[in-house]
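Onboarding guide, step 5: your first structure request.
Type a short instruction followed by the sequence, for example:

Predict the 3D structure of this protein.
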Amino acid sequence: MRDSNPKSWFRSAGWGLAILSFINLFNYLDRYLVSALVERLKHSELALTDAQLGSLMSGFLAVYTLTAPVFGALGDRRSRPKLIAFGVACWSVATALSGLAGGYLWLLAARASVGIGEAAYGTIAPSLLSDYYPRDERGRVMAIFFCAIPVGSALGYMVGGTVGAHFGWRAAFFVAGIPGLALALLCLGLQDPPRGSQDKTPSARAPRRNLAPVTSTTALGTTTKATYRLLLTNKPYLFTVLGYAAYTFAMGGLAYWMPAFLERIRGISPEKSTLQFGEIVVVTGFLGTFIGGWLGDYCARYSQQAYLLVSAVATLLAAPFVWFALTTPSSAAYLVCMVIAQLLMFLSTGPINASIVNLVLPTQRASAVALEVFAIHLLGDAISPYLIGAVSDASSLAQAVKIVPIGVVIAGLLWAWAARTQARTPADHLPA
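The system replies with structure tokens like these:
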């Protein structure tokens, strides 16, 4: 694909990766903008409680989770660039409307609507990238794509903190939402190659339980049900997704509440708290994601389970550092432990997403990512921001954040089990 039309760089894999990664940056900028505005919203004319503030993320993720399977099914059968363009435009408009909220319910509805647009983008983009690049390069490709998570999250903290401090919380939503409309137009020019164009031909021995054929006479609903049913019988994929859900529970809760934690528990000013945590996230996320992608691809030369094993080991090593960062009274110790914890956690980003697309067939990838999105958010960060907020209302934020390290440990153990399951699964039961 990358060499088929060298004169048209704007239709190349590199351009596609660049555009999709840049959109992913705005995706996470928008997602964590609210985290930087938590204290301003709490003390604004809206006068929101911690539980209501937590529900803004949970409401967004609930809609995101419920609509992801729909877009996953469409992404395996319809034009992926057009669906992505729709999604980007949808979430951009919804973000801008958040700045016009006159009360809690309006703001909740606007943030929930963002989930529709992000579901279209988040489920389909990895599938498109897997058809731009071959299997043995996907760890690094996914690392580049998902580097937008820490960079975008950090920008969300910084934009929210800075714009909110100088122009108010409403202006922050306008600044985050409007640029997305231009990105939506760029999506329409992306190449949409045939599914599986960068994969080897599936083994002739592969059982039909792994296949979800689509013909002109096959009803979309019937094919979709069959695809999701087959994915649920793919044990390595299933354990990988469950581990990702525990990881997302931990990372989502931590990312949402850390600026408020630094302000309330550590006594740091609102603007400095968002900037400090944003700096940690962008540096550790950028380095960790790239190192993890390279390490996963290198180890994959020697083991088919390498992506899962790298993720499992890095996440289990991160768990004690997360605990100490959240419980130590020393500011210096907090900083050291948080940097190490975040670096280790981000190591798994590229490898685990490469595992998900590699463990299924090309015709199942958008559906597989959609099911992953459904599970990790339903069981993960759709719960943790609200749960931490509710526990904080009942006790204190210092006690509530102790939930986070538990999720980290569970994620590492499930990924180790997924690697073991993959090793014990017959070769003809997995994609070639």
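Each response can be followed by summary notes, for example: Residues 1-7, 201-218 have pLDDT under 50 and may be disordered.
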